[in-house]
Known about the structure:
The protein is built from four helices and eleven strands. The chain has helices at residues 30-40, 111-122, 150-156, 163-168, and strands at residues 2-11, 21-22, 56-63, 66-72, 75-79, 85-89, 93-108, 142-145, 173-181, 190-198, 205-219. By secondary structure, it is an alpha+beta fold.
Amino acid sequence: MVALRLAGPLQAWGSGSRFVRRGTDIAPTKSGIIGMVAAARGLRRTDPLEELLPLSFGVRIDQPGQLLRDFQTAQRPRRDRNGDLGWQSLPLSARYYLTDATFLAVLEGERALVEGIDAAVRAPHFPLYLGRRSCPPAGPVALGVSDQSLHDVLETWPWLASSRVQKQHRERVVRLATIRDAAPDETAVESIRDTPVSFDPNHRDYAWRSVVRDTVEVPNPHGVSDPAPEHDPMTVLGG
């Protein structure tokens, strides 16, 4: 498997955006990560994705961030009946982003494939974005390759939240949400249309995938080992 750190001022992972409303999911999507990996490997939007589709995917929400809504206006040049150049206003659009978020993403597959993905992400052919072109990553993305399973990595990888966020939590262990591909024998699953078949702008196509939403517990490096008991002023009265 190969692990990825996804952090930046802005992220946008939309799996259901329509028309002038461009939403974002609460965590990176499989289609978004496959697209980022394809860009790192130098694939163009019209190139086939067969080699990447068998990869299993999982993500852990280490720092959920906050939702940001951005209204955008746009104009395009247009000539009137007299041939004079003017401007046509386009519909107002609302775009949503995640701010100050950090995720652990994991792709599991054949060793040679995940090693190639790790190398490509470290020296990408095309620039890497966290969902949209306006969302570059902050810091290195590649975390390395491991022989552990996807599920084990989501459970044991150190907490990636910033020191500021870790210090805000006094617990020695924190509970983090995960979203991962379901195993064939799992029943408590949810179906989402998030497997990319083609990124061709003229023939975009996505297939359904079954996912499991779960939680894991990981140590907090800044947790208080022996928190002081709460002060009860009534104890001085005895009783």
